[in-house]
């Protein structure tokens, strides 16, 4: 009797060369921060101070390059290139897309710093000698600076690079893919593994520190509502468990169902909260400061961008504590946010991507920071008599103290806690999704247990670090790692630029001078076709006779020259035929013709000199190619004209293939 086979197949798409080294590094660093938190923090703080003191100019230069690079791309002819094939369409509506990228990139930070940052700059300005009546204006300026175009340019560089190489050239959704022009197929080897290990660790540590520090603010909010008596560790455990359980379920449900719906809901809740503060706060003051602050920011944009405070020694400590720390923090989050933005941006043009990523979230940030920050300053000056300024260094409770000066305080606290929770969930949810992708070298679908695994690991390590006081050490280590990743981002810019230039040259490549003279003189036949709207049967007959005969004749001649070609016919989804020449190291050459329906304009039908038609639909034989370029109408070509046109395309294909700079574009896509 055969024994029953009860073995269970354990499925995973983790890459051993990425997932295992990353997990080893994550656990080792977490143990050091947990068991030797004091010693580790001292070492990390020493390194951080050393880096910030001597290399702050490099952080400024890096972020400046990112801003100028994106603006240059958006305003150039390269901006029209799509993040995908030319016929790609976006996966998400514009609102859903903006909501998701915004929730992943800045959401929780707005709740945490919406009041506290402006109040901090107001209470302790960069220039200690600043006149009192200018403190609020300068506080708003630096808040705009830290949360505006510079921050989103950091995310945009990574997101744009990965979206382009993933959707335009079918490379894995991983940081390694952005190095293809430089490393070629080596991205699939050790170099690519090292890059992805760095990205995975940065993503994990960024989410862990945010989750840990955010729990403190949630506890403060729940204490203000008297839901919990204090911020004891057991309540922190409960909050983390609830957030991560929901995040894991959301991640398992899929990106479209989970993050999309939560992000849309939270943006609406955040706007509702902001409008409440605007209406019940000092409305005229808020609107006035927003208008003036926006102009003040624009007029100081260049000087802020390049300022390193080299001539203002007294402000350098403030500069390192705020601006450099922010640039480091945004860069450390760039692998995670950039990968997520790339994931949801298929089908957008480069210009659309850059303008949306830079301007829409930044403008919302400006409005949010003005509504909350300017309200807090006004209340501190006219109502609280300095009470809010005294809490400037305690952002965990400052937001809830700020709400105490408004009606319906309890409702505001409940709403803000709900928004914070959902922002946490979307950050953890999208983070789990991204970590799965990096650990599996860009695999699309991962086993559900892997999402649970990342959720459990995030919860355990963040709670253990909260318990042992090691979270501050981990945050410092994450900031230090920003500098090497900033160098990686510069290389991403170089590789992206190189690929885009080659892409543009490929798209506008002209036929050789000799091929321009390939034509025929059957103009009467052309005229007859021009004056006739073709029916489906006419186009099918053209494809099955003229085009097919051309392909058969050309295939035979190619065979005489030792070139093997295949003729493929299709009846659905569209009637089509194609000539294909296969290659090993290059993408296959493909020239196809398909029947495409076109709706005739009523205006043309009703015109006196227009061709007669019994239907509002006409059909054209349209070409298509293996590189997904947009095709064109060939109904006026004879058999010999079709052959000439195929040869023009084949000559173009061989010319492009002979140029080494086109290796990425000409490589196989499957």
From TrEMBL:
Keywords recorded for this protein, A-Z: Cell membrane, Membrane, Transmembrane, Transmembrane helix, Transport
Keyword Transmembrane included in the entry's annotation: yes
Superkingdom of the organism of origin: Bacteria
Signal peptide stretch: none
Subcellular locations according to the entry: Cell membrane
InterPro entries according to UniProt: BCCT_transptr
Segments crossing the lipid bilayer: 18-37, 57-74, 94-115, 144-167, 194-223, 235-255, 267-287, 324-342, 354-379, 399-428, 449-466, 478-497
Family in the record: Belongs to the BCCT transporter (TC 2.A.15) family.
Name assigned to this protein: BCCT family transporter
């Amino acid at each position: 009797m055969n024994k029953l086979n009860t073995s269970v197949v354990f499925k995973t798409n983790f890459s051993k060369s990425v997932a295992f080294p990353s997990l080893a590094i994550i656990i080792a660093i977490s143990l050091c921060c947990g068991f030797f938190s004091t010693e580790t923090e001292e070492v990390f703080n020493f390194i951080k101070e050393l880096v910030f003191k001597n290399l702050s100019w490099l952080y400024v230069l890096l972020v400046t390059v990112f801003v100028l690079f994106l603006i240059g791309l958006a305003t150039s002819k390269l901006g029209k290139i799509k993040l995908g094939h030319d016929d790609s369409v976006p996966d998400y509506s514009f609102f859903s897309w903006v909501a998701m990228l915004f929730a992943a990139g800045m959401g929780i930070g707005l709740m945490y710093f919406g009041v506290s940052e402006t109040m901090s700059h107001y209470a302790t300005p960069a220039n200690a000698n600043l006149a009192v009546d200018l403190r609020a204006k300068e506080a708003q300026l630096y808040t705009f600076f830290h949360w505006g175009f510079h921050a989103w340019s950091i995310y945009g560089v990574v997101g744009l690079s990965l979206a382009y190489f993933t959707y335009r050239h079918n490379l894995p959704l991983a940081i390694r893919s952005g190095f293809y022009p430089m490393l070629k197929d080596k991205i699939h080897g050790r170099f690519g593994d090292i890059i992805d290990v760095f990205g995975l660790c940065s993503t994990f540590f960024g989410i862990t520190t945010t989750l840990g520090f955010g729990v403190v603010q949630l506890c403060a909010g729940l204490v203000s509502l008297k839901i919990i008596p204090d911020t004891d560790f057991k309540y922190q455990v409960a909050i983390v468990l609830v957030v991560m359980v929901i995040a894991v379920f959301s991640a398992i449900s899929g990106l479209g169902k989970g993050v999309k719906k939560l992000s849309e809901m939270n943006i609406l809740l955040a706007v509702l909260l902001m409008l409440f503060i605007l209406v019940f706060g000092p409305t005229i003051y808020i609107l006035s400061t927003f208008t003036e602050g926006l102009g003040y920011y624009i007029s100081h944009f260049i000087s802020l961008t390049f300022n390193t405070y080299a001539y203002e020694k007294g402000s350098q400590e403030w500069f390192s504590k705020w601006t450099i720390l922010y640039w480091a923090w945004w860069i450390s989050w760039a692998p995670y946010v950039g990968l997520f933005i790339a994931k949801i941006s298929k089908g957008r043009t480069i210009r659309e991507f850059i303008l949306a990523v830079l301007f829409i979230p930044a403008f919302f940030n400006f409005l949010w920071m003005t509504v909350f920050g300017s309200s807090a300053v006004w209340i501190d000056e006219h109502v609280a008599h300095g009470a809010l300024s005294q809490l400037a260094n305690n952002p965990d409770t400052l937001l809830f103290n700020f709400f105490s000066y408004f009606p319906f305080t309890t409702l505001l606290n409940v709403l803000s806690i709900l928004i914070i929770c959902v922002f946490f969930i979307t950050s953890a949810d999208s983070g789990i999704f991204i970590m799965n992708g990096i650990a599996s070298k860009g695999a699309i679908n991962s086993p559900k247990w892997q999402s649970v695994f990342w959720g459990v690991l995030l919860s355990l390590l963040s709670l253990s670090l909260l318990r042992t006081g090691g979270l501050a050490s981990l945050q410092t280590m994450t900031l230090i790692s920003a500098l090497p990743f900033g160098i990686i981002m510069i290389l991403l810019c170089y590789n992206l630029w190189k690929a885009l230039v080659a892409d543009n040259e490929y798209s506008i490549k002209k036929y050789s001078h000799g091929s321009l003279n390939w034509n025929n003189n059957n103009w009467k036949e052309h005229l007859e076709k021009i004056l006739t709207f073709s029916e489906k049967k006419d186009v099918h007959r053209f494809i099955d006779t003229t085009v097919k005969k051309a392909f058969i004749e050309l295939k035979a001649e190619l065979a005489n020259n030792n070139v093997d070609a295949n003729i493929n016919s299709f009846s659905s989804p569209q009637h089509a035929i194609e000539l294909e020449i296969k290659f090993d190291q290059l993408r296959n050459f493909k020239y196809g013709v398909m029947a495409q329906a076109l709706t005739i304009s009523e205006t043309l039908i009703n015109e006196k000199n227009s061709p007669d038609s019994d239907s509002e639909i006409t059909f054209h034989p349209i070409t298509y190619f293996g590189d997904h370029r947009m095709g064109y109408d060939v109904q006026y070509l004879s058999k010999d004209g079709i052959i000439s046109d195929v040869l023009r395309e084949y000559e173009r294909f061989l010319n492009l293939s002979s140029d080494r700079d086109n290796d990425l574009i000409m490589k196989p896509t499957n």
